[in-house]
Amino acid sequence: KIPKKALEELTKNKLNIELTSINGYEEFEKNFYSEKYDCYYLQHGDTNYEAVEFVSGEKNDDGTYTFIYDGHSHVTYKESQFKLNCYVNDNVYTIISNLPIN
Length: 102
Prior knowledge:
2 helices, globular
């Protein structure tokens, strides 16, 4: 659980972007936002663990990395291919986005 205001501040302070500008925000809000409590909710546990198969990966000109992998969507409950973008700083991987490829 995270209050909407806290998530807005986090994306602004850490990513320097507005929460609503994130790719797929409308789908995220539809599936994880509770207007009644003004919070986002996501349940996760080890039972959701699953292996994925990486199809490709590359380092981008801006220093970020892009990986394509086959996995299972916990939103649509279908097998899907995903595009993961991240950057690495001092061996810490920070995910920028991790969305199904439409």
